[in-house]
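Exam revision sheet. Question 4 asks you to relate a sequence to its structure. Input first:
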Amino acid sequence: MDTYLLRKFIGSVFYAIALLMTIIIVFDISQNMQHFSDVPAWTVITKYYFNFIPYFVNLFFPLFTFISVIWFTSKLSDRNEIISFFNGGISFYRFIVPYIIGALILGVFSMFMANFIVPKSNQELNAFKDIHFHANKNVPIGMITQRNLHFKNSKDSYVYVQNWRKRTLQGENFTYEIIGDENIPYKLTAERIVYDTLKNHWKMMNVRTRTFNKDGVEHVSVREEVDTNFNFTPEEFSLDVTAATSLGYKELKEFIAKEQAKGSSLVKSYQIEQHRRVANPASIIVMTLLGLCVAARKTQRGIGVHIFIGMFFVFAFIFLQQVSTVFAVSESLSPAMAVWLPNLIYLGICIIMLFTIPK
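Answer key, structure tokens:
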């Protein structure tokens, strides 16, 4: 029985993944055909789709598992195979053992993908998009990509730029401040700041510097152009909520610690990504038990009823994930609670259904 159910379980999951990913790829090709027109087909397959597939597979792994469990368990129930197992002296709780084993195997595989395979594939995917997608857009070279960026650069220094243009590596209305215990001993403002990639330093235009000496006397200087070095790079201004998706497990932990020290406003989003890499694989176990509880109930209306109930649970789960993430970003919930809350709610539903299902 264990071998039979485990083979059905794993086989159904990967069959569902292959089927749905084929549909997703067809839609993606039709949507991005203009970007692929000048690129060799083999390059598109190896550099784009070989990196595109792991991300979406891992993203929808719990839902693939849930749908697959409902599908093949409903067929077992419809053919009275579950009743045959029970008539053979096997208890319901013994019957779910191969399901749990299969869910653990898929959960470990998903966690490995989330922390090691997907980050590397995202790096290559983003590199491909930067070359073949973004470069072909009919947008101005100096397009503003970030507005009102501010971060903590060190223990007592802060950086701000009003507009940042990623493609030209330049910002407008730049401010660099050192905060003292009672005042601001140093403040530098520049109308424009540009990173020189050849000399690897910053160039500022229309610079105004204000300093205080030991006696508290203010000194102001104004210069048209200044070349200088800062201990931050242009990448600091280009970070967004997707930056963490290209980092492995160890790199992500170090990245979050670094951003916390700077006081970055995106730390919550990065922490959500960190917890999601564990919570998403864990939800495979929850979804497996839930799918089993839904599909094991024999009904005269057939598999369609189970699929309908399953779709309701799927959309409710996605809705809970989105709502809890919004609460986390707004600081109403901690990132850990926001990510794990849908799993905990559905685990409670599973426990109730396990006690009420006919055994």
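Marking note for examiners. The first strand starts at residue 146 and ends at 152.
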